[in-house]
Amino acid sequence: PFLRWLSGQGAKVILCTSERGLHVLHGNPHIDVLVPYVTDSVPMDELPGWMRKTAQGHGADFMLNLTGSIEHSLSPIWSDPLYKFPKWERALRCNKNYYEFVWEYVGAKDLCPKDSASLRPEMHFTEAEDTEIRSWLGENLQFGERLMVVCWTGSGPAKKYPWMEYLIGEALHAHPELTCVVVGQAEVDLSRLHAETGGRICSRMTSWSFRKASLAASLADVVVSPDTGILHAAGAFPVPKVGILGANSVENITKHFENDYSVAANPKLAGCAPCHRIIYDDNLQVCPHDSLTGAVWCMDVAMDHERLAKNIHEALSCGYENA
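The structure corresponding to this sequence follows.
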């Protein structure tokens, strides 16, 4: 949204980003020049100077450094002082919408748009990408079938829902016209569910790039995802989405998304939720765990499983038709 706004102000946008950013932002019409940065190619203490030199080399009139605008600012990691603040103070500082916060981060809070349509993300795909995914869906879905795209897990334990297989099974049994495509960077054996549902589930985990999975999500009838990239990609489109939010809130992530049926952890059942922290395996000891599943509380005991299943049904019944 911020790049779209900058471009709309008449600015020539020169964006320097890493390999992952290049992958996500490919084809974005609001960016005039994409400058690749190879991860870890410049020492951290030299990075600000390198960025200023790069900006000058492209004739930029001014530079905005968005590094850490979400991580460290709204979603601290274990080495940040904010990570150790009490929950109430973290909530005061961190329970802000990620898309709105960019304006505040660069000192232009008053210029942030007020309408949700201006604060939704975007993704742009090439004709070749679109043809490839539509062809695959045409070969693997029967006429009249509906599509549910599920992202199995995010990058950390606070983005992993332990009952995802159960949730998929409930949706497929309740909606015999539904086919499920599972995406994400995980290896999971879905053979039992494949057999139980008559083959109406297909894994594209690890075989589809983020762009391909995002494009499939844009063509779905419903998207189910924890708080990870696929949920944000789905937010760029009107497809109904059911986010499973543990460490973060609806305010943080899905506030401006169309057809949002997300469910957040119940703080009465997990007093730590939402913690607004980035939880990696090496600092997982800060999280209480369920003894049965090993999952963190915000994604298990504090998650309303029946509400999730009901919201998937409501999303599929909302009248949305994906062209």
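The mean pLDDT is 93.
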